[in-house]
Amino acid sequence: MENPENYIPSLITATPQEGRELAIKLARKSIAAIQTDPEIRKKLRSDYANDTNQLIGSAQVVAIEFQTIAAANNYWR
Amino acid sequence: MENPENYIPSLITATPQEGRELAIKLARKSIAAIQTDPEIRKKLRSDYANDTNQLIGSAQVVAIEFQTIAAANNYWR
Amino acid sequence: MENPENYIPSLITATPQEGRELAIKLARKSIAAIQTDPEIRKKLRSDYANDTNQLIGSAQVVAIEFQTIAAANNYWR
Amino acid sequence: MENPENYIPSLITATPQEGRELAIKLARKSIAAIQTDPEIRKKLRSDYANDTNQLIGSAQVVAIEFQTIAAANNYWR
Amino acid sequence: MENPENYIPSLITATPQEGRELAIKLARKSIAAIQTDPEIRKKLRSDYANDTNQLIGSAQVVAIEFQTIAAANNYWR
Amino acid sequence: MENPENYIPSLITATPQEGRELAIKLARKSIAAIQTDPEIRKKLRSDYANDTNQLIGSAQVVAIEFQTIAAANNYWR
Known about the structure:
The structure is a homohexamer of 77-residue chains.
Chain A: H1 16-34, H2 38-49, H3 52-72
Helix pairs in contact in A: 1-3
InterPro entries (chains A, B, C, D, E, F): Hexamer_Tyr-coord_heme_pr_HTHP, HTHP_sf
Protein name (chains A, B, C, D, E, F): Hexameric tyrosine-coordinated heme protein (HTHP)
Organism (chains A, B, C, D, E, F): Fulvivirga kasyanovii
């Protein structure tokens, strides 16, 4: 289940927006590290993309990842 | 699924209230980055807006996002 | 859905108890920012006030908001 | 719904154990601030005390509250 | 419901591994502080030990407790 | 239930990617510390690997563990 791809060379981003997109990417990579089959992930998409409970749960993951990235970038002050 | 719009130029806000509104905006943008179809999002609204469990889950996302924004603004001390 | 009311002029409170009450207020304001109809919110109250699962979820929101407020007040040391 | 009782004069405790007990107390006070009727709370107890899902959710609240109290006490170093 | 036992004399541990085991212990002690009957807890074990949803919820509690302990130990740098 | 194996000699990693993989490892070790039977864990895998709700819950655990590891490594600045 090791994910050989280096998808996170750095936590440092130029802007908060890039930080936001990195947070969404990290959330997705966690799912991919657990469910490694891309075909299954594609089939599962409709399970959560139309389920508000799961969209809210996903937004929680993004919020936690973004909190880490924002601290890493000293909040782009 | 890339969201080209730059919806977060900065984490810095003039007041805690603006920080609060930014936190709510970020929570929503996470949902939009996952469910990119605005028509589907509009239809889904009634699923969570009248479900207290999901309203509470949403409030958790806002609380985490606000925690990040408050730290970014040094708590508007 | 913009909430014009400025319900959070500051994160600074005189005591931990006031900080606690601000945390509970912020949690509620998040719900109100999402479900803006006070009549619906009143009707929904019984859905969560007697559901321990949702009371626990609400307590999580208060705990996260209080964590932010306590840090803002340097833990009232 | 205002809880006039001052149940949290300070976040500072002599020991981690007292900090732990304060965290459990804060978690409970959140529930009491939302469901203010002690008779209803007593009746609801069996709903969560024998439900592992809700015991785990309660442990999450205690963990977040303890995180705040531990930081307030500089981890009792 | 007071838990007289002093199960957390200190947050300081010699190694991250000990910090990990303390985090798991704290998570369990929270459950024991809420459901104080050891016989009931033993009976409830099968409810969560074979339920992946609850195993994941438990792992969240451990992650939050470990976050506190790691900060207390300055990450064992 | 003591897990004698020392699976976390240090929180320090060379890169964010290694930090990410450590976070996933820690999340799994929490599950193993609670459900110690590897055969049962193997059987349970299909319960969560195809359930988006549980994949999202798992991603939350990884996000919290990674937050701790990133702080330990001073965000690999």
